[in-house]
TrEMBL record:
PROSITE patterns: PROTEIN_KINASE_ATP (PS00107), PROTEIN_KINASE_DOM (PS50011), PROTEIN_KINASE_ST (PS00108)
Protein name: Protein kinase domain-containing protein
Catalytic residues (positions): 161 (proton acceptor)
Superkingdom field: Eukaryota
Pfam families for the chain: Pkinase (PF00069)
Annotated family: Belongs to the protein kinase superfamily.
GO molecular function: ATP binding; protein serine/threonine kinase activity
InterPro entries: Aur-like, Prot_kinase_dom, Protein_kinase_ATP_BS, Ser/Thr_kinase_AS
Domain Protein kinase: 39-274
Keyword field: ATP-binding, Kinase, Nucleotide-binding, Serine/threonine-protein kinase, Transferase
Sites of the Glycyl lysine isopeptide (Lys-Gly) (interchain with G-Cter in SUMO2) crosslink: 163
Keyword Calcium (UniProt): no
Residues that, per the record, bind ATP: 49, 68, 72, 165-166, 178
Length: 274
């Protein structure tokens, strides 16, 4: 597991050879002129608005990572430096079992690469198989999603793009990913930028009104409803999360105390012990 120190982002500017310390497994002394000298792409995983994500193998350690590649020309064209710096800063602060691990950042003369835990599947890919997923499995997924967002919201982090494609999975466990639009709130700060995926956006975001992490709660309500759980407790939770009035949505942490999730917690703890 990465320590706090080696989780900190450090830009490795390959061309100028500056700041060559990296939060990755220790490497022999060697000059890297391109990202491809260090990583070999083995599978395309997905495409974002400004980035491409690949499964890649580290040529030094043979470890598998997900690498998120953003071209510097795109960063300059769309003025993404602030957003990218913000994403890296937030990722470097996170350490939760249901959030994709961040391992570091590299760059060369053409690209910036964010190095992450590799997850091949996502909640979205399971949507065609929902009928094959039993009620207990759905409840476990919901519990882990809520655990991750309780952790984020405790740290005043608003994800702002909560959707099934960004809820990754590895070995049947949830991993929240893509913090490209995430913001860490300061004090009583509110946000007003209209961003996210329209179908999952909270009403106050769509209308250009001020919002905070309760916007994430609405998105979670939409996703949990799509899982079609039969539990009345979960259906009631969805009703609360999807309230148009953000003040009526409650907090993610409160929902973790529901009786149904106490049972899930017990099942998960027994699985870990085994």
């Amino acid at each position: 597991m990465a320590t706090y120190e080696n989780r900190q982002p450090q830009i490795f500017n390959i061309k100028t050879k500056q700041n060559i310390s990296m939060p990755l497994p220790q490497t022999p002394r060697k000059e890297y002129f391109q990202i491809s000298d260090r990583f070999k792409k083995i599978k395309f995983l997905g495409k974002g608005k400004y980035s491409d994500v690949y499964m890649a193998v580290d040529k030094i350690t043979n470890c598998i990572f997900a690498i998120k590649i953003i071209k510097k020309s795109i960063i300059n064209q769309f003025n993404l430096s602030k957003l990218l710096t913000q994403e890296i800063k937030i990722l470097s602060q996170l350490n939760h079992s249901n959030i994709m691990k961040f391992y570091g950042v590299m760059s060369d003369d053409k690209e910036v690469v964010i190095i992450l835990e590799c997850c091949e599947s996502s909640l979205y890919k399971l949507y065609d198989k929902l009928d094959q997923i039993n009620e207990v499995q759905k409840q476990q997924m919901i519990y882990e999603i809520l655990q991750a967002f309780s952790y984020l919201h405790d740290r005043r982090i608003v994800h702002r793009d909560v959707k099934p494609e960004n809820i990754m999975m590895i070995q049947n466990h949830i991993k929240i990913g893509d913090f490209g639009l995430a913001v860490e709130l300061k004090g009583k700060q509110k946000l007003k930028s209209i961003c996210g995926t329209p179908y999952y956006m909270a009403p106050e975001v769509c209308k250009g009104l001020e919002y905070d992490n309760k916007a994430d709660c609405y998105s979670l309500g939409v996703i949990i409803e799509e899982l079609k759980c039969k539990s009345n407790e979960i259906r009631n939770m969805v009703h609360i999360l999807k309230q148009n009035d953000c003040n009526l949505r409650g907090n993610v942490k409160d929902f973790l105390q529901l009786k149904i999730f106490q049972k899930v917690k017990q099942i998960l703890s027994q699985t870990i012990l085994k």
